[in-house]
Write a structure and sequence with these properties.
Number of strands of chain A: 13
Structural class of chain A: alpha/beta
Number of helices of chain A: 19
Distance between the termini of chain A: 50 Å
Number of domains of chain A: 2
Shape of chain A: globular
Strand content of chain A: 5-15%
Strand order of the largest sheet of chain A: 1-3-2-6-8-7-12-13-11-9-10
Largest interface: A-B, 37 and 37 residues
Largest sheet of chain A: 11 strands, mixed
Oligomer: homodimer
Chain lengths: ~550, ~550
């Protein structure tokens, strides 16, 4: 079978797993000229009032209504499955669909509650979506690669990712896996199995990647929240492109585990985490998943079971360093406006703002990427060669890579450590610039230069990858949306390099209208608890803590 | 200059730095037939009564006498310098000698105390020895390599290791650096610059390595304690061979930093830590050095500032899994007797003992070592080629190594992660074997198959390297000493492989008499606090908590 045949078969199988009663007839779907589809599932009339009430509800309401037996887990699961179905029809965000299994999980939770009067755990009856690479028993994990579509046809219970196992034991309902780019190594979501996943804020734009399907689905309210992963920005980019909350935690703090393309790569740590419409979901997930005693048996090898700190208190007035842009790529006008909003709101609330020096960030991004290609792209090439599927243009760094020696790798790792040291010093050095004489509390900068890039244009991930290289926790907070009336192209700007030029050229105020504008909140290694608290303050100042629920 | 000329020059320079008044005349030193030299500095009459009192005192006494002004920092420093001088004459354990600098540090501490009435920190006036690779301003760090003897001639303040900087700020007095094997990648201490460092328990034996000079010096009471490092057993082997306490902590928990030979190697983490005659010194060091707030500016890039847990409580009765031997090398009869003592003492105290299955440990040791040679030995070869210094027989794995590709390295790292997973499962699986139905609290096994190996015979580090591969905390506790009358060679034992044969052949009850017998106490990742508490219980049961101070 050719790669196209395998892809067609795989897509047909996926499509067959949707419930006909939940599918919108093809001819009733909005045409490609309808760009913002966020409200379409509601406005179209295909969801019932009850389904709308359930899928629009904050997690606290869902829990309260489970507890009071107003809603059963099955009712909730069906509502999210229906909405996920429509979301998929609009933006192509799902890979594996297993509604029947999800309904079985939900039914057994309802039975348990009925019989015992107890909820099984904090996620009892909560529909959670999973990025395609997470391993769940009974499903494959093709990670956007044709040759992995059926290899294996399904994973076993033994293989299941530690976080999936834990969430299952705490009552989660699983029913879909979400789309990723080929091998999960690009900042957009497109592959030869399933094609492109679009951004529901504006279907001209990419949903980002690699946890792009999650970003699109969660924004479409097709799940309560989702689990993604991040080795260069893969949680944060799609969260930023869809105005979601996420945290790329310090490596080891949250259990992970799942299929990787670059198996054995350790020069840059990969982490998994939640993507949600509510910051409280992200916070709670971090607390629950790091609970040492309950989850000992579910640890992944890289997990550091230190527990979650409850005793982190912020000063009343925070000090932030802010970089409106890094030293390589000038952001879209929309993103710069977003940064200005953040600066103004924080200042108004009495927080102190100083300038962050981004020198060297662009170069560090290149080093981080050179770790990804240090095997000469062999792993990625083999995955392509297995079926002859073509490389996407973005993936050429893997196709063109030359394998390096371990000596060279060691040199690169030393170089990275030197850069990390430099950044630690830079952070500590902010003590000289603050009124308190102490270093900053946090660092704020764009998550991406794009407020959602047009398809194939998300060519620069340096705003996020730097913090993978540093292994500093970094989260995203929604600010606002791009506006064609005010986010005008900067006609006088002269791009400073090719990547900057590509970014500059890709912006068109009309075409990018309505894209998400997000800010990245960064802390020092292991200050995950503090970053989450700073995210809350930034969101409160920006008025976006309830961005999705009001 | 030939490598021999450089070595001769370097040795002559070192020798010139001793104070003539502290040197024992050559002709008065004991001959090579005197094997146990532990008491010689005292019994020989070369130390004054006051110097003996100071150098034999527990750290608590030293502190009390500093505080009460009975002893000044200078007096204390001189006593330890004198004793270190004699120790060096007996076992050849020092590399860099900077008594004048140490006396200046001590004098300035005395002045500070005189003027302010305050001690500068918990290490005020405490003489601490440093493994040769630790960077201290004003000194070189040749790490047993001829071409590094003067490259650089001395390091700057900027280069200083974070732990050295921190200890300095807390009042430590530095005055010596201690010997290491060539490039610190062997379990014995010998190199072409300085020759062999001998074991003061029995000068037929090696002091172990790579922190071998520390092991010998601390056992000779030439410092209050020392700082070494461990990537395959380098803290634990010399600690075991000299019956000292140490902890190879989970990577990242203690600040480190210093010169490495395999710069950029990260597949196996290197950690630094204390080696001491008192367990309380090890415990206190861990607490002080992980204190987040005070030492923020001194962090090394791999440091994870979790802080030290004060709330770790042990159950009254502990459960240990014990492996008297691993699956590759059968220990000396002395070591097996030591394990039997430990088992019996723990059982008598009411603790539960089950068997640990060591299957796969020998193979894992090989994988750990293959990471060390994954650059084809290039770094080590270049260090040798620079001056033409010859390879020691032990180092042939570096000379003969072939460089591998990053693809192969990634495969090896994956393999390692799979093994780690297997060991986690094995640990968790002990729940089926314990009376409580819970997994074991700790794992006990020999630190080495040797109770001190004869020179050139310490060919197997698998008992320690496995826990570097697993990144599990592991400490050493003294048990007793080898006894030629009872630790008879096992005439009927049939070695199971070449390494086992080498170990078996190297044992001679007479020649190995008096060697140190130690036990290794191991916990799960990040359970460093628990391991230290278990070490205390093991030492209490074995009656060795005061091994050096009574």
């Amino acid at each position: 079978m050719s790669y196209k045949d395998i892809s067609a078969k795989k897509r047909a199988e996926r499509d067959s797993k949707f419930k006909p009663e939940w599918l919108v007839p093809e001819e009733e779907l909005p045409g490609p000229e309808v760009l913002d589809v966020l409200q379409w599932p509601v406005s179209s009339g295909y969801l019932s009032a009850s389904e709308i009430e359930i899928t629009e509800a904050p997690i606290a309401t869902i829990r309260a209504n489970i507890k009071s037996k107003k809603w059963t887990a099955v009712t909730i699961a069906k509502a999210f499955m229906h909405r996920a179905t429509i979301a998929h029809q609009l933006v192509n965000c799902l890979t594996e669909v297993f509604f029947d299994l999800g309904l079985e999980m939900a039914a057994s939770l309802d039975k348990y509650y009925e019989e015992t009067g107890q909820l099984i755990g904090p996620y009892h009856g909560i529909p959670i979506s999973l990025k395609d690479n997470l391993i769940i028993r009974g499903q494959p994990a093709s990670i956007g690669v044709v040759c992995l579509a059926y290899d294996p046809p399904s994973f076993t219970e033994e293989d299941e990712s530690p976080n999936v196992k834990t969430l299952r034991s705490l009552g989660a309902v699983f029913y879909v896996k979400t789309s990723v780019p080929t091998a999960m190594m690009i900042g957009e979501t497109m592959n030869n199995l399933y094609g492109y996943t679009l951004n529901p804020f504006n279907r001209n734009l990419t949903c980002g990647g690699s946890s792009g399907g999650e970003g699109a689905l969660v924004a479409m309210k097709g799940s309560v929240f989702g689990i993604g992963g991040d080795i260069g920005g893969s949680l944060r980019i799609p969260s930023a492109f869809q105005n979601l909350f996420t945290l790329r935690a310090t490596s080891g703090r949250l259990p992970g585990g799942g299929r990787a393309a670059l198996v054995g790569l350790e020069s840059v740590p990969s982490v998994q985490g939640p993507m949600a419409r509510e910051l409280c979901i992200v916070e709670e997930y971090c607390q629950i998943m790091t609970d040492l005693d309950k989850n000992m048996e579910n640890l992944d090898v890289k997990f550091v079971p230190y527990g979650w700190r409850q005793d982190v208190d912020l000063p009343e007035k925070l000090t932030f360093a802010i970089a409106r842009e890094d030293d390589k790529v000038h952001p879209y006008p929309s993103i710069l406006r977003g940064m200005d909003i953040v600066i103004e709101k924080l200042k108004s609330a009495g927080h102190e703002i100083i300038e962050w020096d981004p020198t060297g960030q662009g170069e560090f991004d290149q080093l981080v990427h050179s770790f990804f290609t240090s095997d000469g792209g062999n792993k990625i090439k083999k995955l392509h060669e297995a079926t002859g599927e073509p490389f996407f243009e973005f993936m050429h760094i893997y196709r063109d890579a030359k394998e390096i020696s371990v000596s060279d790798l060691w040199d690169m790792q030393s170089k990275r450590n030197g850069i990390v040291k430099k950044f630690i010093k830079r952070w500590d050095g902010t003590a000289k610039l603050t009124s308190s004489g102490k270093p900053i509390d946090g660092l704020l900068l764009p998550t991406s230069p794009y407020s959602g890039a047009p398809l194939n244009k998300n060519q620069y991930c340096g705003y996020t990858s730097v913090f993978n290289g540093l292994d500093w926790p970094a989260g995203t907070v929604p600010v606002t949306r791009a506006d064609k009336e005010i986010d005008l192209k900067e006609v006088d700007y002269k791009p400073k390099n090719d990547t900057d030029q590509l970014c500059y050229d890709s912006y068109d105020a009309d075409k990018c209208h309505g894209g998400a504008i997000s800010v990245q909140v960064v802390g020092r290694k292991l200050q995950d608890e503090k970053v989450l608290k700073m995210m809350k303050i930034v969101a409160q100042c920006c008025g976006t803590l309830d961005y999705w629920t009001t």
